[in-house]
Amino acid sequence: MSIKRDILWRVGIVYFGFLLLGFLIIGKILYVQLFEKSRWEAEANAYILKNMIIPADRGSIYASDGRLLASSLPYYEIRFDARSTALTDKTFYEGIDSLAICLSRLFKDKPVWQYKNELIKARKQGRRYHLVKSGVNFIQLKELKTFPVFREGKYKGGFIYLQKNRRIRPHQNLAARLIGYTTKGDGGNVVGIEGAYDDQLNGVEGIRLMQRLSGDIWMPVNDRNEIEPRDGVDVITTIDIDVQDVAEKALLEQLTVQDARHGTAILMEVQTGEIKAMVNLSKDSQGRYRELQNFAIGESTEPGSTFKLPVLMAALEDGYIDLNDTIDTGDGTFQYYDKVIRDEQSKHGGYRELTVKQVFEYSSNVGMAKIITGAYKDQPHHFVDRLYRMRLNECLGIEIKGEGKPVIRYPGEKLWSGISLAQMSYGYEVRLTPLQILAFYNAIANDGKMIRPVFVKELQYHGKIIKRYRSEVLQSSVCSRSTLKKVRILLEGVVENGTAKNLRNEQIKIAGKTGTNQIYNKKYGYRTGNEVSYQASFVGYFPADEPRYSCIVVVNSPSKQVYYGNQVAGPVFLEIARKVYATSVDMHDPVEKDDGMMVDLPYSKNGHRDESRTALNELGIPVDKAHIKSPWINTTKDEKTVQFSERTVIENLVPDVVSLGAKDAVYLLENAGLKVVIQGKGSVRRQSLMPGTRVNKGERIILEMTYRD
User: Which partner from 327, 475, 477, 527 sits 20 to 30 angstroms from 287, CA to CA?
Assistant: First the structure.
């Protein structure tokens, strides 16, 4: 009996335990339902529904004339909702064969049977987000919307498309580094104009409600967005594509000939500071020259002889020299402390006695060192202060990131030495970027006014200007008027009499300065074994008498034993100057009209009366019998006028279109009901159907075209 009671007692405890557990579970369910319902619904929705960011359409970047430099090209991902409740079996199976045929013909990537099998399989498995095709363009999307099944729309046809954007540059490598790019994430980077105006180009993101499907796939809940994205603004740059193209080709040719490491060329408009061209080419691992780094903005190097201009200006401003003062350069060598300074002419006995003007024109290092050490040896801080007042130690503050910092040491600093003053006199122990050097020379061309370089003219939103950028003056005058007048004479003398005589030409007068300097390596100094790397440069402006443009060309490490600035960088400068001069009508003297001169009137095609009259009136060519009634005319010319005569077109008869242009001939013939086939280009020389014969609607007529001799 005691055993039975013991068993019943144990069973009772177990039974009671399960009962208690059941009550606890029911209690917890009730508690969750009554008091935690909203919390768990929110968490469930977080896994089923969520708001996803919709990137705004990024704004485009344009050249100064409106041609496209960079834009976002839309492409689409096509999905199929095979389990859409509104998609009936009748709609699907009646249209699947035709749909598969259309898809195969459009994309040409899969046979018809494969498309059909994939869609049927997706239907049977109830896939909500089956991928049909990615990378679809807009024209293909429009065609897809007309296909069987898909043309029923999202719900009745299961047709889903999502837009994505891909950044493209129509001119590919042209100005690629200046246009730039942006990369996102922790290691992201912002480069060039794309980076500088990233916030404006980006626009405002939108939000779309998405639903989670099996396989961690997210599908839009509806076609409408919760918040519509706002497109980014368009950036209108100062770049002239034609000049950019010429500058790139000229620099590329010279880099290739000289087998140089890299090079840069910049063209700036003098009065506005607008950058019209900026080329940066460097050799990649395959030996090709590409836009890989913006040397114009970011590479700060010793400028060499191009720095002699501000150096000489300091001595002129302080009254230590004048242009006609003489300097004895001796045999082309000058011992200054433990440093021997040499002229290139030292190989041939030196220049001996030179005027200050000739020192600059011949780019004598000895002459420059003697001038500066003689004037500032006991007061080097006065010399450096003068350079600082010219703003040479400050960044330009351009909007594009990565500007190299200028370096002009001050007496007493750690790396200042006894030879620093002499070294600085011919462009060593200082560091500047090509753009910083150009901005200084541009100030000389601009009557002493230094302007911050401008890369962007305006911002536009859907064609409407929302912001216009103006030129910003950094310094109203870098020197006195008297010094400015003298240094212009010096710069013109370099081309007329000095180291850049090879740039002298009859078309356009150039003023500027050559530069040839050794490149310093932190590890090896100026020499690597017995080898020395050079940097060749030329900077100046044109036309010299009325400056319109300033330009700098820098070529790094030419390796064909030719490294002088006038021979390596100068030809690129001249090619750019000639192109700009040839395409700028306002830089040429106007042609004087001789009233007694007989002008041969241009050839005028036969054609439509009103169009011909408008064109001739626009050109200022007098027309005789311009008001004849016939809408189609023949033209003849005498010495002074173009004469119109009637050209008869009779309904239902084949028109005579010989001597007409293609546009007018096709218009007349198609209006008559004929199908036109054109062979060749120019004006109609022969037509296959005889003029005046009866028209048979739909008949083909062949037009043989030829250019007028």
Answer: 527
Each residue of 468-501: pLDDT tens digit?
999 999 999 999 999 999 999 999 999 999 999 9
Q: Which of 110-124, 185-199, 524-538, 651-665 has the highest mean pLDDT?
A: 110-124
Q: What would the DSSP string read from start to end of 267-326?
A: EEETTT-BEEEEEEEEE-TTS-EE--S-HHHH--B--GGGGHHHHHHHHHHTTS--TT-E
Whether residues 581 and 646 fall in one domain: no
Q: Is residue 309 part of a domain?
A: yes
Q: What residue spans of 203-263 are helical by DSSP H?
A: 241-258
In a domain, 630, yes or no: yes
Same domain, 331 and 407: yes
Cβ(557)–Cβ(437) below 8 Å: no
On whether residue 591 sits in a domain, the answer given is no
Long-range CB contacts (< 8 A, 24+ apart) of 136-144?
Answer: 136/75, 136/76, 136/77, 136/78, 136/161, 137/74, 137/75, 137/76, 138/74, 138/76, 140/76, 140/106, 140/107, 141/76, 141/78, 143/106, 144/78, 144/106
Q: Which domain holds residue 63?
A: 52-184+202-232
Buried b (16+ CB within 10 A) or exposed e, 39-69: eeeeeeeeeeeeeeebebbbbbbbbbeeeeb
Are 159 and 223 members of one domain? yes
Co-location of 166 and 266 in the same domain: no
pLDDT tens-digit series, residues 167-215? 888 888 889 999 998 876 555 678 899 999 988 998 877 776 677 665 5
Name the domain count of the chain.
Answer: 3
pTM strictly above 0.85: no
CATH number of the CATH domain containing 702: 3.30.10.20
